[in-house]
């Protein structure tokens, strides 16, 4: 099973993206110039300064477009806080089966490209320890169009993570709480939220499904203890905008953390906070089914 977590780790995601872009641009530019030069070498046409300038400019633009297409995409549209329709039904599945997990892996590669990610084997061990950490949003065709993962971590690891001395790369199998202990976990970490084709009309709807589904997921799998805090990292400008929009408060600046990603937190034990987030997200029960509710209904029918 090829599983990849939803958010890359590393000291500087933005720098890595720029490096990947410049690398792809340089390689494609050199290749295009070489190809064109080789072509004209066998043609009975002299290259004037004007023609050379035009060719150079065309190669420059074409290489830039090629590099842009290969650059990692935004993982989540930052401006999706208004429902845009409920005409297409989706399903949020947790725990995800092997096929859905593999699709989530492909989506992660599509979004993050060659950026550094948690080793596949390690993430697989997390799922073995607790299969409820990954939830996949599936469309009517059975395709994974988005997903999120929420990690219930041991308190001693969370202490180091909040201080900024530990990062996602330090999470091991033993740091993940199993389902029977996770429900009592008072500090959860949202490792990432991803939607396919960020920026499109369909992605806007799927983004809302994911955010609404995340609230339902937290209520079902973790309930409402007297105190619960949910943490998340803001690795990109878009990610920070989303977190701030949904009431997350800054815990620690990126500059003082080992992973160089700002850490945010929101208290889910405050009824007003939860109500505000729910009102902002909207009710998508008619558009997005929840697999755990389907299982509960099936169990009731069998008992009847």
Quickly list its features.
eight-stranded mixed beta sheet; 10 helices; disordered N terminus; disordered C terminus
Looking at how many chains there are and whether they match, the oligomeric state comes to: single chain
Q: What is the strand content?
A: 15-25%
Radius of gyration, CA atoms, in whole angstroms: 23 Å
Name of the CATH class of the largest domain: Alpha Beta
Structural summary, described in words:
This protein has helices at 13-41, 49-70, 98-112, 120-129, 155-163, 179-182, 201-222, 237-245, 271-281, 291-303, and strands at residues 90-93, 134-138, 144-152, 187-195, 229-234, 249-252, 262-267, 288-290. It has 304 residues and is an alpha+beta fold. It has two domains: 13-70, no CATH class; 90-303, Gcn5-related N-acetyltransferase (GNAT) (Aminopeptidase, 3-Layer(aba) Sandwich). It has an eight-stranded mixed sheet, sandwiched between helices. β2 (134-138) and β3 (144-152) form a beta hairpin. 34% of the residues are buried.
């Amino acid at each position: 099973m090829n599983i990849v977590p939803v958010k890359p780790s590393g000291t500087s995601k933005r720098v890595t993206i720029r490096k990947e872009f410049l690398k792809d641009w340089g390689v494609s530019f050199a290749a295009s110039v070489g190809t064109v030069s080789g072509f004209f070498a066998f043609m009975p046409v002299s290259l004037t300064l004007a023609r050379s300038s035009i060719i150079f400019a065309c190669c420059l633009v074409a290489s830039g477009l090629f590099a842009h297409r290969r650059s990692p995409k935004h993982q989540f549209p930052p401006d999706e806080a208004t429902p845009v329709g409920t005409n297409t039904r989706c399903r949020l599945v947790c725990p995800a089966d092997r096929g859905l997990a593999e699709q989530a892996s492909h989506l992660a590669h599509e979004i993050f490209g060659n950026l550094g990610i948690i080793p596949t084997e390690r993430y697989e061990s997390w799922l073995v320890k607790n299969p409820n950490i990954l939830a996949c949003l599936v469309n009517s065709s059975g395709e994974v169009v988005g997903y999120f993962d929420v990690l219930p971590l041991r308190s001693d690891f969370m202490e180091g993570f909040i201080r900024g001395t530990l990062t996602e790369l330090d999470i091991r199998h033993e740091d993940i709480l199993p389902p029977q202990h996770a429900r009592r976990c008072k500090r959860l970490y949202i490792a990432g939220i991803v939607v396919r084709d960020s920026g499109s009309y369909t992605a806007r709807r799927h983004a809302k499904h994911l955010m609404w589904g995340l609230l339902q997921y937290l209520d079902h799998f973790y309930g409402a203890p007297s105190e619960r805090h949910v943490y998340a990292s803001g690795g990109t400008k878009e990610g920070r905008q989303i977190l701030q929009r949904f009431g997350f408060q800054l815990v620690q600046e990126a500059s003082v953390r080992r992973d160089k990603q700002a850490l945010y937190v929101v208290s889910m034990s405050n009824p007003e906070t939860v109500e505000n987030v729910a009102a902002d997200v909207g009710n998508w029960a008619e558009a997005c089914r929840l697999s755990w509710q389907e299982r509960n209904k099936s169990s009731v029918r069998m008992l009847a």
